[in-house]
Amino acid sequence: MSDFKHRYGPWAVIAGASHGVGAAFAHLLAARGLNCVLVARRAEALAALKSELEVQYAVEVLLVTQDLSHSDATERLIAAVGDREVGLFIYNAGGDPFITRFLDTSVEDWGSLLSLNSLTVMNCSHVFGAPMVARGRGGLLLVGSQAALGGIRKLAMYTATKGFALNLGESLWAEWKDKGVNVLNLLIGTVDTPTMRDAMVKLNIPNALTMSLPKAEDLAQLALDELGNGPTLIHPEDTLSNRASSPGQARRLHVLNKSAKAAVFIGND
Ligand SMILES: NC(=O)c1ccc[n+]([C@@H]2O[C@H](COP(=O)([O-])OP(=O)(O)OC[C@H]3O[C@@H](n4cnc5c(N)ncnc54)[C@H](OP(=O)(O)O)[C@@H]3O)[C@@H](O)[C@H]2O)c1
């Protein structure tokens, strides 16, 4: 446990922490002694989680109430974090609040999903990743979706933006793996979160509230256990098959092979 804290502490930032997988990460990290910066839009939910973490684990907790789709989100987050040393950055926000055909949602609304799932992910990876690489330790964990793996009807911008984060994370893994910084994309099939249940109810899915779904706590635990085995963990497939022949392993080999082949043209530095 102290190894984990040394490698990924003393502070973790969880962007999208007020419920579901993000809140589960906060509990698991606080239990390992990491102080937590919790980011989301709903101040009350964040305040309740802060009290739980402080009482149960005696860690420090900083709240940042922020819409991560806003163009100044990263700047404001950095200002709030100040000189705290962040050893682990988790980006968990990013569900699709629309779930419509492409033309049935406005360009402005798709633009906010684009910012949330692409621009802010890029900005945060840069500003939090740089000091980790300089220190030679740390972790970047991007919570993604199996929707990143290809286009899906009614999920055009969700698949597109999740694909952005997947490629970014895999490339950073290839760049940082020898610099002591672990990168993991967690590609989720489905997980039980309030957002998912609300969407299922809104879309009139049968058994929306009773259907059995993987638990947020289990996925968060799995991702922390596998943080050093990037770049990509595909749930549930990677937990079902032999790791050596799993789809996540295939992506790892793809990144290594492509990086080696591309070096002929773009250099090996
Ligand atoms: N649920 C699933 O079945 C499923 C399947 C595949 C992948 N995933 C991925 O897993 C992650 C978590 O899923 P979820 O269903 O809990 O997603 P979510 O609706 O994006 O919520 C996750 C967290 O992010 C926060 N958040 C959402 N939009 C935000 C914004 N604009 N600014 C700041 N914070 C924001 C939410 O809190 P606030 O509302 O308080 O801001 C919440 O704490 C997402 O990246 C999603 O794409 C989920």
How would you summarize what this structure contains?
The protein has 269 residues and is of the alpha/beta class. It contains 10 helices and 7 strands.
Labels describing this entry:
269 residues; Rossmann fold; 7 strands; 10 helices; alpha/beta; binds NADP nicotinamide-adenine-dinucleotide phosphate; seven-stranded parallel beta sheet
Tell me about this structure.
- One of its GO terms (molecular function) is oxidoreductase activity.
- This is Short-chain dehydrogenase.
- Keywords: NADP, Oxidoreductase.
- With 269 residues, the chain is of the alpha/beta class.
- The protein has a single domain (2-262), classed as NAD(P)-binding Rossmann-like Domain (Rossmann fold, 3-Layer(aba) Sandwich).
- 51% of the residues lie in helices and 15% in strands.
- The chain has ten helices and seven strands.
- The protein has a seven-stranded parallel beta sheet, sandwiched between helices.
- Strand 5, helix 6 (156-176) and strand 6 form a beta-alpha-beta unit.
- Helix 2 crosses helix 8 (216-225).
- Residues 16-22, 40-42, 45, 67-69, 92-95, 116, 143, 145, 188, 190-191, 193, 195-196 line the site of NADP nicotinamide-adenine-dinucleotide phosphate (NAP).
- NADP nicotinamide-adenine-dinucleotide phosphate (NAP) binds next to helix 2, strand 5 and helix 7.
